[in-house]
């Protein structure tokens, strides 16, 4: 299991995050983990407007983006199909700690099967109208579904520390996984990432993090498949 160097710490909006010794970075924004998850990933990808979002996530981490999306779809009665890749899974005890108070039945079922799933290399849980599949593998070498996702959440650690999930080849494969009209969202606004997304055939928009309520964050990217 992936070690963390501290117990969970509160970010600016009170939601919890942990620090990764492997990457030397926090799993989510210190300026507000839950706010970033909602603004950049859920709303950036427009998953909150889709009647039945199909989400492909790079880096399941603490499961925060999943919980944000699940709360949204459960709240409006939408069907959710979520596929996440995670190369270095955290222990179930860490996921439990950062999600204390979470009562969604699918999340609780996930916590129960998490350790067996990481040992098996994959897990799948369904509850009501939501399905989650987590593949415990390096996404840069994994098969991705073609033309499937209405939303891609590109949420690796930074391009400097976690380069394999930001290469032009990887961005092209993520673009290929999007259905027409689907949107990729990522917190990075690095020039190389923007150029890679454009080269992958996506229409890229820079959004201002500050205007979206993300204090301390300059810009993030939303990339739409024509
Ligand atoms: C910033 S954290 C993701 C936070 C997560 N999206 C959440 O909502 O809690 C980045 C995640 O990407 C994972 N990761 C890094 N490189 C990867 C790779 N090549 N394949 C799959 N997962 C990877 C890390 O282990 C880490 O869990």
Give the secondary structure arrangement, pairings included.
Elements: E1 9-10, E2 16-17, E3 19-20, E4 25-26, H1 33-43, E5 54-58, H2 64-76, E6 80-85, H3 92-98, H4 105-120, E7 122-127, E8 130-135, E9 149-154, H5 168-177, E10 178-186, H6 191-199, E11 203-208, E12 219-224
Parallel strand pairs: 5-6, 5-9, 6-8, 9-10
Antiparallel strand pairs: 1-2, 3-4, 7-8, 10-12, 11-12
Helix pairs in contact: 1-2, 3-4, 5-6
This protein binds S-adenosylmethionine (SAM).
CATH architecture level-2 label: 3-Layer(aba) Sandwich
Number of domains: 1
Instruction: Provide the spatial order of strands within the biggest beta sheet.
Output: 7-8-6-5-9-10-12-11
Report the strand count. 12
Helix and strand content put the structural class at alpha/beta
* Rg, Å, rounded: 16 Å
Query: In CATH's first tier, which class applies?
Result: Alpha Beta
- Using the coordinates shown, work out and report the CATH topology: Rossmann fold
The residue fraction in helices comes out at 25-40%
| Sequence stretches where pLDDT stays below 50 over 5 or more residues | none
* Shape assignment: globular
Question: What is the helix/strand order?
Answer: EEEEHEHEHHEEEHEHEE
The molecules bound to the chains, other than polymers, are: S-adenosylmethionine
What is the averaged pLDDT score?
A: 94
Task: Characterize the largest beta sheet: strand count, sense, and whether it forms a barrel.
Answer: 8 strands, mixed
Q: In percent terms, what proportion of residues is strand?
A: 25-35%
Helix run count: 6
Distance between the termini: 39 Å
Please name the fourth-level CATH homologous superfamily: Vaccinia Virus protein VP39
